[in-house]
Design goal:
Helix 1 packs parallel to helix 4. 81% of the residues lie in helices and 0% in strands. The chain is elongated. The relative contact order is 0.17. By secondary structure, it is mostly helical. The N and C termini lie far apart (33 Å).
């Protein structure tokens, strides 16, 4: 949950719907990995640093907003 909290803090400038979409994506991915037998540590290592993930999400959002 610490990883998710850090991600939330770093994507706070996105519209609420986009924040929810990103968090739902990672929550579903997390649950899928748990069901497949991964440990929380393995999952977080795969996801990477939440700040880096947030930067990627923000860049993708900015890119799609610019295309609109």
């Amino acid at each position: 949950y610490e990883w998710e909290s850090e991600l939330k803090r770093n994507i706070h400038r996105l519209p609420k719907s986009e924040q929810d979409r990103a968090l739902e994506f990672y929550n579903e991915l997390f649950e899928d990995r748990i069901e497949s037998g991964w440990t929380e540590t393995q999952i977080i290592a795969e996801f990477g640093n939440p700040c880096d993930v947030a930067d990627k999400i923000l860049a993708e959002y900015d890119e799609s907003a610019a295309d609109s």
